[in-house]
Amino acid sequence: MRLFYFCLCCCLLLSAPVFAQFSRSIAEFKRDRAQETQLLRTQLLLVVVKQEDEKQLKKLAKKPDGLRAYQQSIALGNALLKEVAGPGWTFSPKVEYKSEAELAALVAANTGQLNVLDFDAVDYLDAPPPMRRYGEPGPVLAGHRDELLSFRLRIFLKQIDFTVHNEPLLNNTPNPSDALYCVKILEQYAAGTGPQRVKSGSTPPLLLLCQDDRAPGLTDAQIKQVYPYSYQFVARPEYEKAVHEVSPGVAFVRMAWQAYGTISPMAYALPGFGIVSGGDLHRLKGPLITLQDFKSFKKTLLR
């Protein structure tokens, strides 16, 4: 009987899934986070451009809406990575674009650490309710509407990959500024710190907000009663231009995903990225900027 159980244990350990999990556990135990950060800082970053998966295309062949959504999500993710990752990622000395096939070949021959930025899906059912801003999510990666686009920073230690952080884009139609915010957040996770707060100084910056994010009925008269500093709502094109021009003395406000399924507007500074102030951090209803957010901005801006 003992021989039987011994043989059974050996079979389980030799099975591919169990052996893979066992190898991952050993690799996790041996990880050196300080060295990982140093290699993220000194080695190149591989930005992976995705291709449409043939199996997924066949699976969705009879579902035109799902097929169209899947193809659009791949095109959108690639476009945002190409536009933003190159100039936006400054933590590593160099950025190179690779296909999934090229990455697979590099991983197979890898004996050290590979640093990878790509996009993936986050489970819509696990996402905060405010993501349903337009009634239903837009970009989906699995051909059904329960996944949302997310930027992901990974490292490969030999052939085993670990996710450093996954940052979702909180918009049905993500804009380059959304992608840039995600890239900058990922840089701070690469540094091993996570999002960092920076002091705004004695002079509060101009809060620049997108008109798309303004709650219906929120008036300037109401805002000025609770927020004494400078702010400005602008149209989407002007907002995008300002973000990419890195206007001095400006804090850009963007909806950001917080812990435990909450969402709030965050004010951040560029080019030395840092969180300047935050809105209502515990709101679960509605993704638009409200009067309560301006009250929170006032409390946190000069801390």
Describe the protein in words.
The protein is of the alpha/beta class and about 300 residues long. The chain has helices spanning about 1-15, 15-30, 35-40, 55-60, 65-90, 100-110, 175-190, 220-225, 235-245, 290-300; strands at about 45-50, 95-100, 115-125, 145-155, 160-170, 205-210, 230-235, 250-255, 265-270, 275-280. Helix content is about 40%, strand content about 25%. Mean pLDDT is about 80; it is low at about 15-25 and about 125-145. Helix 5 (about 65-90) packs across helix 7. A hairpin with a 4-residue loop joins strand 9 and strand 10. It folds into two domains: about 35-190, no CATH class; about 205-300, no CATH class.
| Shape descriptor | globular
Q: How many DSSP-defined strands?
A: 10
Using the CA coordinates, give the radius of gyration: 22 Å
Strand content: 15-25%
Low-confidence stretches: 16-24, 124-145
The level of helicity is 25-40%
The average pLDDT value, as a whole number, equals 78
Order of the strands making up the biggest sheet: 2-1-3-4-5
Structural class: alpha/beta
Number of helices: 10
In N-to-C order, the SSE pattern is: HHHEHHEHEEEHEHEHEEEH
Q: Total domains, how many?
A: 2
Main sheet summary: 5 strands, mixed
Query: Alpha-carbon distance between the termini?
Result: 68 Å
Name some characteristics of this structure.
five-stranded mixed beta sheet, 303 residues, 10 helices, alpha/beta, 40% helix
